[in-house]
Amino acid sequence: MPKSLRSPRHQRFLAQLVSLRKAKGLTQEQLADKLGRPQSFVAKYEGAERRLDVIEFLDITAAIDADPCEILSSLRS
User: Which residue in 31, 17, 27 sits closest to 63, CA to CA?
Assistant: First the structure.
């Protein structure tokens, strides 16, 4: 299995998260504040410099009021 970091599917995943954040009118700083994390945390995962674990992903989707199952389902194909 090839590495997923920076793969086309990973890029689609990140694009969805960025798009959903922006659709909610949130900056990276505002999202980071909601998560109790520094702004660099958001910048690094959005820029594919770091991976998200499942718990982080669920916290992010909760903070942007997004359905994690929809996001994951869209990545299956």
Answer: 31
- Tokens 């949130």 locate to 26
The burial of 31, by beta-carbon neighbours within 10 Å (0-12 exposed, 13-18 middle, 19 or more buried), is given as buried
pTM score, two decimals? 0.89
Average pLDDT of every residue of the chain: 94
pLDDT at 71 over 70: yes
CB-CB neighbours of 35 under 10 Å: 16
pLDDT at 41: 98
**Are 35 and 63 a contacting pair, CB within 8 Å?**
yes
CB 17 within 8 A of CB 71: yes
